[in-house]
Design brief:
The chain is of the alpha/beta class. The protein folds into 2 domains: about 120 residues, Response regulator (Rossmann fold), CATH 3.40.50; about 100 residues, Winged helix-like DNA-binding domain superfamily/Winged helix DNA-binding domain (Arc Repressor Mutant, subunit A, Orthogonal Bundle). It contains 8 helices and 12 strands. The strands form 3 sheets. Strands 2-1-3-4-5 form a 5-stranded parallel sheet, sandwiched between helices. Strands 6-7-8-9 form a 4-stranded antiparallel sheet, with helices on one face. Strands 10-12-11 form a 3-stranded antiparallel sheet. Strand 11 and strand 12 form a beta hairpin. The two termini are about 30 Å apart. One of its GO terms (molecular function) is phosphorelay response regulator activity.
Length: about 230
């Protein structure tokens, strides 16, 4: 799970940031100032940094971050109420990778953090399998054995995500965020419908699923295939 460090002095804003980033499946460490952040930063994948902070400004702290060889490549998203072009340029030239002006939407925040993660983390595998199930991301193709599955784009995205995370349980809310996106306006019933449709494609007996399992009270999981299983 990707780790995001948030440094924001306004408690309400800080908790809103934490809520939406965690809802998007990210691990969050949140601080009200730059003090005591060193350990968290050295395990972080992205830093979300407010410009206006008590004591040391975000801009000054960013200069220190960029002077640390171990943190030099840490992606930084800077938050600020400063809208002037010269100030945005100053933040970027100091070492920020992206810039978000307050007020901003939760969907845009999550999208920008995910974009920074994609730039720095290894590409996801283009092919994956789980027993007889084989998925080719680049070709947008899924097969069970030699049988090609005729899936919609969203069905394919959901199947690929669950196969990439075999054995992990995801709630309906998590799946909406991770597959449909944080700005999707539909409800959790959408996930149930797509799971039902996928089971009709995948399973010999959809009422007794061998792949997509329901975990009562928690959500869904892609069951790990074993050598004892048969198609």
């Amino acid at each position: 799970m990707s780790h995001v460090v948030v440094i924001e002095d306004e408690s309400t804003v800080r908790e809103v940031l934490r809520f939406h980033l965690e809802r998007a499946g990210l691990r969050v460490s949140a601080f009200e100032s730059t003090r005591g952040t060193e350990d968290a930063l050295h395990s972080a994948d992205v830093l979300v940094l407010d410009w206006m902070l008590p004591g040391e400004s975000g801009l000054s702290f960013l200069r220190r971050v960029r002077s640390d060889p171990e943190l030099r490549r840490l992606p930084v998203l800077m938050l600020t109420a400063r809208a002037a072009e010269a100030e945005r340029v100053e933040g970027l030239e100091t070492g920020a990778d992206d810039y978000l002006t307050k007020p901003f939407s939760a969907a845009e925040l999550v999208a920008r953090v995910r974009a920074l993660l994609r730039r720095t983390q290894p590409d996801a595998p283009q092919t994956m399998s789980n027993g007889p199930l084989n998925i080719d991301i680049s070709a947008a193709e899924a097969k069970v054995g030699s049988r090609r599955l005729n899936l919609t784009r969203r069905e394919f995205d959901l199947l690929a995500f669950m196969t990439q995370n075999v054995g992990r349980v995801y709630s309906r809310t998590e799946l909406l965020d991770r597959v449909w996106g944080a700005d999707f306006l539909g409800g959790e019933r959408t996930v149930d419908q797509h799971v039902t449709q996928l089971r009709a494609h995948l399973e010999d007996e959809p009422s007794r699923p061998a792949f997509l399992e329901t975990v009562r009270g928690k959500g869904y999981r892609m069951r790990a295939w074993t050598e004892d299983d048969t198609t």
